[in-house]
Amino acid sequence: MNKIEQKRLASNIGRAIAKQRIRSQLTQEEVAERLGVGNEAVSRIERGRVIPNIVRLLELAEVFNCEAAELLGQASLHVDDQTNRIKALLAPLKQNDRQLILDVIESLASRLQQDKTPEE
Question: Which residue in 8, 37, 82, 117 has the fewest CB atoms around it within 10 Å?
Fold first, then answer.
């Protein structure tokens, strides 16, 4: 993995952790306290400056009452992980709302495929 890919991964993991923290209605300070670290450590992780190690990732998942795989899946650029994320977002919605979102996704995908240049 090159430096650019590492930066992208750190950024994606940081965003996933920040989203989960907000969903859990916790502040960075509260997360830091539960982890026994300083506020700046949590901030650096969320900003993608630092990639948490496996132990820290498991601790974060415990704080947020979710699976570590969920945090990694939200950060993944793999199509299967992104598909599972969309599935989880759609699952609690009513059928009409799911259909609306599918229609929007189909329209966007079609538009983006048309906009592709040959060298992409």
Answer: 117
